Amino acid sequence: MNLLTLLIFIPVLFALVIVLLPSSQRGSFKYITLLATLIQLGISIYIYLNFKTGAASAGINHEEQFQFVHKLPWIALDLGNMGKMQIDYFVGIDGISVTLLVMSALVMAVATLASWEIKSNLKGFFLLFLLLDMAVMGVFCALDFFLFYLFYELMLLPLYFLIGMWGGVRREYAAIKFFLYTLFGSVFMLLVMVGLYLSVNDPATGSHTFNIIQMMNPANYANGSVFSAAAHQTILGMPARTVGFVVLFIAFAIKVPVVPLHTWLPDAHVEAPTPVSIILAGVLLKIGGYGIIRICLGIFPEIASSGAFWIGLIGVVSILYGACNALAQRDLKRLIAYSSVSHMGFVLLGIASQTAEGVSGAMMQMVSHGFLSSMLFFLVGVVYNRVHDRDIYHFRGLGTQMPQYTAFVMVAFFASLGLPGFSAFVAEAFTLAGTFKSPTVNGLLPYWMAVCGSVGILLGAAYLLWTLQRMFFGKVSLKGGEVWKIALTDVNLREKLALIPMAVAALALGLMPSLVFGKINDSVLALIQFLQTK
Amino acid sequence: MHDLLPHIPAQLNDVFGSIPYFMPEIYLTVLFLAVLVADLFVGRRSVEFCKVLACGGLLVVILKDITQLAQVQTASYALFSNMLLLSKASVHIKLIIDVLSFILLLYFTWDDKLKEHIKGLSDLYTITIASVLGLHLMAMAINLLSVYLAIEMVSLASYLMVAYRSETPLSSEAGLKYVLFGAASSAIMLYGISLLYGFSGSLDQLADNSIVQLSKVNEASASVALLLLLIGIGFKLSFVPLHFWVPDVYQGAPTPVTAYLSTVPKIAAFGLLVNILPPFLSDTSWKGVNVGQVLSAVGIITMIAGNFAAVLQSNVKRMLAYSSIGHTGFALMAIVTFSAQGLSALIYYLAVYALANIGALALASYFSNILNAEDVESYKGLGLKYPVASVCFVIILVSLTGIPVTAGFTGKLFVFSAVYSVYQQTQSVWMLALMITGALITVVSLFYYLKIPLYLFLKRTENAEVASEKSYNLLVLVVIISFLLILLGIFPDLLIKHL
Predict the structure, then answer these.
(1) Cβ pair B360, B439 in contact under 8 A
(2) CB B493 to CB A77 under 8 A?
(3) Least C-beta-crowded within 10 Å: which of A295, A524, B22, B324?
(4) pTM for this one?
């Protein structure tokens, strides 16, 4: 049995168990889900440990260099004079995916621990949760565009219901907004996907293929096909490949999200229950970044280079705009949602720099933000569960009220604002180093973008420290008075179990960035190489 | 008279030679008579008897279709002196129509409102079998005369079905509207046919010199004649601007009849288009209006109008009526490719759409049996009380929207592929516009399709008590349909490799 296939479909097996159990056993559902996510975590760590590094296993545009590959013929259709359609069940990982897999598996386990707060319709919740888990793992492993798209879209429906059924007051609005935004991006992605597969021929079989890696090789494009680099076709007067890149980029940019396509995110995060916020921030945003690296850069490298300035600009705008918005929020969850927009901007900036440092920094930022944002949302959930309020100005002096909780908050805040010793520092430092290097090495980004990125870090420190001061320092003063004081107990064992791995991971990556860099380095170098030669 | 005598043996031979290729239709005719007579003689239990007879008979017809598949694998046959064309596509369409009609025949008695009809449903079975015969003819017709006869046969049966339960004013209104619009449009079509006949001197548009003759008259008049013919077919397909009867009729008709109207006649009408349009496209002597462009424009407008109008609806049946208009527009996208790939994509798309639409209307019946209401707001909070039906509803609606992993998505993918491959060859702006519209309306359609899950699951209910009586037959049907939709979503080649 292939490990990746096992990793993807384990949640489905456990979901079947939950379906078959009667509702009277509903107390056990969360333990079953936890078991599923822990097994997944175990498998992902095993994969991580056995992941081979070295230039011979860099992946990117070499199919044979991918690891844990599982390839089965799936749909094969004869299209008459249009040749054959070939869709494979094709999963495999390289350095770009492996760290994200481990991160996602850990975040999923933590999200399950956060699901203890869910009290209604447990069967439905955990079924949808496991379905979402499967789709997320599938996206990171899929190397066939059709399979990728299937998993990508499969995430939408469970999320719609998870936000819509277990969310807050404005949950219906938030759920439909999230769904419409993402679908808007992905229907056009479907068009580009169809165009790509009709343009690309598998050199081995001669049939049209959805294989992403084959799509990276310009030699596989049929003569005169829409997306062939040599044919210079146009769509509505614009170069076809530019249109293709932009459409795919917008689809993923909605997921990341970048300004101005981010407006679904604050709503969705704020209305979603804590476990779903954790998955949204921790994992789903990374799918956007991952898609840009794997698909936008991989398939349209020359457009990615010529458009690097704009990608970087969008990144910088996201960093600054997200941070400024975070400064203005009174709702703690909204603040963290906007900080996500700001932090994910660094991913774009790093990708746009197209330097080894920048792309490594972007990858690191994705992993680091996965841990930190999950931790932050979990921490918000802790307070919200106790008093059902998260207005920053309704709390004061939590430091004396909940000392252990405050310690975790401080770890998460300081890690997020880029304190040396934590993962975000390494990530942002590398991203900025790459951006500073870009003007001299490849001339893609101007210096001021790097400067603006640094200002973003400063703003990040401002809103996080200010929040710390407002909520946690000073004398205890709560809006709910004595009732809140009794309700606001310190973190319990389950919450510690969820928070400690996150804090440890953030610290470990800060002290030993090689945990990530060691695995991704060869792939990043291969990607840069690929982008330069195109 | 005498100079025609030498032709008679040849004509007779042609007729006799055609009969072996006409077996499903002969069986249908016999079945029609059998159901009609049975209804007269069996007395009180005639509904069950007619149902069993009709369903059983249709199974035999399906078997005959399948044997016919082997006959047409390599060649097409013109039957009854070029009245009908038996091709691979037409047999596929017939097979799909029969399978869907079989489901619909089962479904008729499961709708409480229709079942309560004082005269019973046995007549309805007779009418349906007759209409299936008409649909078979529609799928094969190539001569303008047979086209008109087939469409009229289906129309007459449809009028009766819509007005079958006419106790309610709404239903009577729907019936009358349908008859009036139907009669007007068939008159227009007949006018178009007579013009075409006058211009070309032949009713057989596939004949070699027919188009040549036609191109000798004024282009504008020939174009008008063709457009008039298209109006008649467009009424059956209900594309914009011939769609205005659809919402009222679909809402007013009994739900199973709506399920019938929104699926099988549409499929047959698409089959008809596939048969009669090629000469106007491929023949270079045709100088009139560009049919491909007309249909593209109509398709784009239909997609937009149908889907945007559906957003505003709150009655489930009315919403599905508008959505079916939208789906017609999408299917038109497949037809304007006029390629073999486009044809199989079209048939796959229509089959999957019809299956999902029947499922959705069966669920409308299911909830209407429980609630006695068809308004989406009355579904509030029912999702958790009827989990199986509600989950199936979600799956079916997701398939109608065209999101993975459902058959609706694979259908959409095949249609897009077919259009794209034509675009790649011709760089036609129309194709691009069709694809972009097709993608955009997916987002719009999500908006209204999701209304139902929204009320089922997301809205919380105030009134806790509803009748717990369930229609298990309908439930089984929708579970099977949902399963099929997911199965075809994962393994589309189970169906499409045969098309």
Answers:
(1) no
(2) yes
(3) B22
(4) 0.93
